[in-house]
Automatic annotation (TrEMBL):
Keywords for this protein: Oxidoreductase
Keyword Heme: no
SUPFAM superfamilies linked to this entry: Glyceraldehyde-3-phosphate dehydrogenase-like, C-terminal domain (SSF55347), NAD(P)-binding Rossmann-fold domains (SSF51735)
Family: Belongs to the Gfo/Idh/MocA family.
UniProt name for this protein: Gfo/Idh/MocA family protein
Organism name: Paenibacillus septentrionalis
Entries under InterPro entries matching the protein: Gfo/Idh/MocA-like_OxRdtase_N, Gfo/Idh/MocA_domain, GFO_IDH_MocA-like_dom, NAD(P)-bd_dom_sf
Keyword Oxidoreductase included in the entry's annotation: yes
Domain Gfo/Idh/MocA-like oxidoreductase N-terminal: start-end pairs: 6-124
Residues of the GFO/IDH/MocA-like oxidoreductase domain: 134-253
Amino acid sequence: MSKQKIRWGVLGCASIAKRAVVPGIKGSQFNEVRAIASRSLETAQATAQELDIPIAYGSYEELVQDPELDAIYIPLPNQLHKEWTIKAMKAGKHVLCEKPIALTHQEAEEMLQVSREMNVVVAEAFMYRYHPRYAEIKSLIAEGVIGDIRLIRGSFTFNNGNSTENVRFVKEWGGGSLYDVGCYPISAARYLLGKEPIAATMQAMFSEKHGGVDMMAAGLVEFPDDVSLLFDCGMWAAFRNPMEILGTKGRIEIPFAYLGKNEQEGHYFVHTDQGIEEKKVDYLDTYSLQADAIARAIYGEEPLPFPLEDAVANMKVLEACLQSAENGARVTLNQ
């Protein structure tokens, strides 16, 4: 007997929702999109028609209270993540919330507590890590193919500097490149190493033209056993998103670590004394994989691969990085 599909509502008409997440949910195996909301009914109706979504609401509250919905996707600006995730959870809904999950780790911990009280599934929207290539890479590291890990390098930059009005440029709303894209290499390094950082040291370019947020940041995140993540992130630089894992016997190169437009861009390379091996992987919609992983957790078939506790831990590192960049000092993390 086939399962009833998880019925999703979308809280807002953000570009990421229209461009990637809604098509991903619609193209997944166990999910469907039933409703979308905006603060403007006209905007919600236009987006619903564009994306072939049956129901449009002119307020977020109406969507959250819809008894016919099982789960809510939240692509709202960062400062609204906590408020609407908690409202959705208290309405008995499961939640997929855009990254970063909150503005502080204390906010994330509060969200975690409510998720436990309401017994709902809550996921942070890091779609890239649902692609099986990351599990493959982690297995190669565990097997010792490249020896002991000495260093991870990661970057995620794009150029949005010419924009004059953008929620990413409002400091009080969780704007800046660290929160927008720096969170990716941090989450990837934590996943691949299976450890939590102990300190962060960052330098950043804070642009008054862009609301005083960090438009570019670079630095060092220290992990146990003398392993480090060197990473940079930016919203005023050429696009790139590579990652390299350096070991004592070789290295793994991921040219497109988080975003790739086609199958070839998903491939990664293992460099050892035996030469360079190109690891070819299938091109898969990671947004669909993410939705189906959440659905399986909702069904009770298997636990969510990246539970909300992971989001709390990632927020702690992000906060430390931003604090270091603002104060020009190394910041230690309490484990």
